[in-house]
Specification:
Helix content: 55-70%
Shape: globular
Structural class: mainly alpha
Strand content: under 5%
Radius of gyration: 13 Å
Largest sheet: none
Order of helices and strands: HHHH
Number of strands: 0
Distance between the termini: 12 Å
Length: 121
């Protein structure tokens, strides 16, 4: 899967997770289609997809044994690094530590990791 395809897969997993876990109606930006996703966010999604893919590969499949919390923390940490990459002074919510993220976002990040697991094999 190319990085662009991986980025789209990441975005689709994010939208699916938001729709499942977000309490109430999510902000429009949370469920924006790929075509309307800003370029910086597409790049960040592709980078995090690639980091998870590589992590799965270098663990010889053993990353599947991680807990959902560990999987979620990994995605969240990779995403935070991308926020620092793309923004000189990111909003505090963009770089919040995992325990400070809302439960819906923690669950969505775990779902993203597992969605990537499924396509990486």
């Amino acid at each position: 899967m190319s990085q662009t395809e991986g980025a789209r897969h990441f975005r689709e997993a994010w939208i699916t997770g938001v729709r499942e876990h977000f309490p109430g109606e999510p902000k429009a930006g949370y469920v924006t289609s790929w075509d309307d996703t800003p370029e910086w966010e597409r790049q960040a999604a592709g980078s995090v997809y690639e980091q998870v893919r590589q992590f799965l590969n270098v663990s010889s499949g053993q990353a599947a044994r991680l807990t959902r919390e560990q999987k979620s923390r990994f995605v969240a940490t990779c995403w935070t690094a991308q926020m620092y990459r793309h923004f000189e002074d990111p909003k505090p919510g963009y770089v919040a530590d995992w325990p400070d993220l809302p439960k819906w976002q923690q669950e969505t990040d775990a779902d993203i990791f597992e969605a990537i697991e499924k396509v990486v094999g």
